[in-house]
Write a structure and sequence with these properties.
By secondary structure, this protein is mainly alpha-helical. The protein has a single domain, classed as MetI-like fold (Orthogonal Bundle), CATH 1.10.3720.10. Helices cover about 80% and strands about 0% of the residues. Helix 3 packs across helix 12, helix 4 packs parallel to helix 7 and helix 4 crosses helix 10. The N terminus is likely disordered.
């Protein structure tokens, strides 16, 4: 056998992905599942042996018991559904304009010069601080909660989309223009697809921020939702129920992140994660 064939076979073996229960993606999934379980186990043991005060940090077993009672009476499902609806509509209202404006800002220097100062001035303003203004404008109904989420989603999506467009190699834009592509074709076939990795990062950040903001909005001006459930539990000194709301929000954030990551993996197969 020749040296060249030996090198070819060695290269093909090296390029072949390793398979096994504790290798690659399987290993990462197992670690992702095991880490919260280990944390809950440590928490449970610490509560039982008295290392932590159960008045403020009840054992996970007590929290789970409260979770089952809230599931049985249907209140957890109704509050979770209310929060998810507001998050969905707020993401659409804030995300779609941010996506379109972000691509336009990345392509147009005059528009970028006009929008950049406005974004720089308004982005640092605490989003929760403007909720009283939203209540004045939209009232105590659904509009103020949806607007709160929309504002939280708008900035990360806009900033990341514009950054993604700006990082596209200029040669792709030049080639498109040389072949007679109009502005809409450049927008849809070059700028938008080229910025997809950054857009997905912006959506993840925006949804995470939106989930935090909707919880705050529901605590102040709502009679439904997970934020309302947490605030009501605080008023009744029901610490276990308060933790149920917090853990459900954490779980929703994790599930949303996993779904978006899998969607991104299908949409952007060329984007590789570090091993």
């Amino acid at each position: 056998m020749s040296i060249a064939s030996n090198i070819t076979q060695a290269g093909s073996k090296a390029a072949r992905p390793k398979k096994g229960l504790f290798v690659g993606e399987n290993r990462d999934r197992m670690i992702s599942i095991a880490s919260p379980l280990v944390l809950l186990l440590v928490w449970q043991i610490a509560a039982q042996v008295g290392l932590i005060d159960q008045r403020f940090f009840p054992a996970p077993s007590k929290i789970f018991s409260s979770f089952l009672s809230l599931v049985a009476d249907g209140s957890l499902w109704s509050n979770t559904w209310a929060t998810l609806q507001r998050l969905f509509w707020g993401t659409l209202v804030g995300g779609i304009p941010a996506l379109l404006l972000g691509v336009a800002v990345g392509l147009s220097r005059p528009l970028r010069a006009m929008v950049d100062p406005l974004i720089s001035a308004t982005y640092p303003v605490p989003k929760s601080a403007i909720f009283p203004l939203l209540l004045l404008v939209f009232g105590l109904g659904e509009g103020s909660k949806i607007a709160m989420v929309a504002i939280g989603v708008f900035y990360p999506v806009l900033i990341n989309t514009a950054t993604g467009v700006l990082e596209i190699n200029k040669i792709f834009l030049d080639v498109g223009r040389n072949y007679g592509a109009n502005r809409w074709q450049v927008f849809t076939t070059i700028a938008l697809p080229g910025a997809v990795p950054h857009i997905m990062s912006g959506i993840k950040l925006g949804l995470g921020l939106g989930l935090m903001l909707i919880a705050i909005a529901e605590m102040i001006g709502s009679k439904s939702g997970l934020g309302y459930m947490i605030w009501n539990a605080w008023e009744l000194l029901s610490v276990e129920q308060m933790y149920v709301g917090l853990l459900v929000i954490a779980f929703l954030g994790y599930v949303i992140s996993v779904i978006l990551t899998e969607f991104e993996r299908k949409l952007v197969p060329w984007k590789k994660t570090a091993r």
